[in-house]
What does this fold into?
Amino acid sequence: MEWSTIRKSRSLLLLFGFLLFGCQSESNVVKTDDETSEDYQKETEHSMTIESSFDQEDYHQIGTLFADFELPEEGRITEDEAREQLPDNYNFRGNSIYYSNHLVFD
It folds into this structure.
């Protein structure tokens, strides 16, 4: 395995680890101004605090990884083959890359 592949794999793992474990949700209480529901409180959980354990070098490596990333040739199919394999209601777009496992990249 090449060192560049190992570095890319490490960077991807760091990114996914950050996304999975780096977010901590908080609970907020919102009070309405409506007179009929003056004392009504609704608890929401849409606010998040993000604490990053990455330093600037980690962000640079992640940026470099995605800037240099190329989709593999293995498993690619043509648009005509994709039209046969994907559902009839799929919205085909120009310049998309199709794979035999039904992944599509625009």
Notes: Residues 24-28 have pLDDT under 50 and may be disordered.
